[in-house]
Amino acid sequence: MSSSVLRADAVHKSFNGTEVLKGIDLDVAEGEVVCLIGASGSGKSTLLRCLNLLEQVDDGDIWLGDAEITDPRIDVDAIRRRIGIVFQAYNLFPHKTVLDNIVLAPVKAGGRSRAEAASTALELLARIGLEDRAGAYPDALSGGQQQRVALVRAIAMRPEVLLLDEITSALDPMLVGEVLDVIRDLRTEGMTIVMATHEMAFAREVADRIVFMADGRIEESGPPDQLFTAPQSARTAEFLARHRS
């Protein structure tokens, strides 16, 4: 791990007068895997959406490399091309094939030729064992297959950082492993990842750092072995005791 890729400084966000993020400070290094854990409503998803500029922060700054991306003059679309995000809902276009879903953004937003984008897409599909499904439509795929395609669609844009928001939550337990295997591979390849997850055992295995969020704040942050075995906060300990897996 080396220089900072993504940084949040004192980020606040409210919805309808309710403060959801209460001064978040988070610094993600190049090649680091950060897992956000915490109860529903703790602010994990809102933080990810703010980091990708899907939500505008009320106060504080977010930096991508040396650029302050919360600057109102920033080209939001250009920033989103540099930060991939995948949600628990696959959000694949149902009327497009798997291949067309993947090549759309690299061609339309990335300026790549159809041939180059298709070659990359087929290579990525081969790596996750779905090259034979390139011509299929999403409704012909299992949930695990659709989520793996959604991951490939995100990394086909060659993002500097990948945000993952509870991407296994909607999957049958039998299919979760397929998706987690892809994340293991991305980690091995050095992808910078920030992911919200409820898969505690997986988080402990793949994360360089665990961030426990509670009530819109970062309650505790540290290496997995330290945080899972000797949490410093009573709230962290209580949460982990309820979510042993």
From TrEMBL:
Residues 6-240 form the ABC transporter domain. It is found in: Cell membrane. InterPro entries: AAA+_ATPase, ABC_ATPase_HisP-typ, ABC_transporter-like_ATP-bd, ABC_transporter-like_CS, MetN_ABC_transporter-like, P-loop_NTPase. It is a peripheral membrane protein. Pfam families: ABC_tran. GO terms for cellular component: plasma membrane. GO terms for molecular function: ABC-type amino acid transporter activity; ATP binding; ATP hydrolysis activity. It comes from the Bacteria. Keywords: Amino-acid transport, ATP-binding, Cell membrane, Membrane, Nucleotide-binding, Transport. CDD domains: ABC_HisP_GlnQ (cd03262). Gene3D superfamilies: P-loop containing nucleotide triphosphate hydrolases. Transmembrane segments: none annotated. PROSITE patterns: ABC_TRANSPORTER_1, ABC_TRANSPORTER_2. Belongs to the ABC transporter superfamily. This is Amino acid ABC transporter ATP-binding protein.
